[in-house]
Amino acid sequence: MTIDSAYLTDFLVGLLQTPSPTGDTAQGIAFIKSALDTLSIPSHLTRKGALVATLPGQSQTAPRGVTAHVDTLGAMVKDIRPNGRLTLSQLGGYAWNAIEGENATVSTHERGTVRGTVQLINASTHVHGAAVGEAKRDASSLEVRLDARTVNAEQTIALGIGVGDFVSLDPRVETVNGFIKSRHLDDKAGVACVVAAAKALQDAPLAPAQTTILHFSNYEEVGHGAASGFPPDLCELLTVDMAAIGQGQTSDEYHCTLCVKDSGGPYSVDFNNRLRRLAKDNALELKTDIYPSYSSDGEALWRAGTDVQVALIGPGVDASHGYERTHTDSLVDTARLIGYYLLAG
Ligand SMILES: [Zn+2]
Questions:
Q1: Is the dihedral of CA 115, 187, 49, 98 positive or negative?
Q2: Claim: this prediction has a pTM higher than 0.90
Q3: Which of 160, 288, 311, 331 has the most crowded Cβ, counting Cβ within 10 A?
Q4: Catalytic hit among 100, 143, 220, 285
């Protein structure tokens, strides 16, 4: 089994450039479906809008799941201000300053698009002086300045914009020296690792040890992505989501990390130990961490009342929920571990 790192990177860059904020993920899901179609892996949409594919296994006695989420941080139009600019309501949790100055696209409910920029109100240093640096960044102090001639709410409404329209932040994808810099590596990097692992098995060709459901969830950032979409006899779920890098963490941008505990408590110790053994047997350096402020789609399935073992692995992502960065080495290691897991009896 060999991971095609060029394919992995190309797929990831394409997916990053496809907007899919939580709640408006159809384009991202279609991008993944198209890649699976090309790999001759049939898939279907759930009623909730997730994408599910089943890889027939050598055995069907203990079906497995592998999940990664395509939905990303973003925003919705909360209201239109008297000056014609937009107030945002966050999709997912992030610091407001992480989006200041970012270009964005408003997708209107009439299927049009309007470009704009997230700006501080009173943004001009030459008018407002030191207050520009001192102002607290929050929902009221930031607004979307639209790239259209509007100075009042009526003119903005005439552009087709309304409350609830989705706002996608530009990802600003850049690849340099093996690094991939972009917003939304959480969790499009994880999606790319899962698809690259599936491709490696198809290329070989090899069948998974157990029938395995590949699940691409579309509501993780709001806490219930993988709560549904699996068969009732599912035995375990491998969640693939980014590893959080920071002070005190062992995670880095060059390796895969096993998360043993996060805000939702410990993951399944037996499952963790099998993954550790798989990594060791295949000379793959697996980092181990606890993420202090984190929850995952594996927990979403647990909280939905499903009786399964759950583990969480993922590539190391720097500056999570900001302008993120990872390295191809981390992606390839994660895809390899997913592949070894699929093949492990
Ligand atoms: Zn995530």
A1: negative
A2: yes
A3: 331
A4: 220
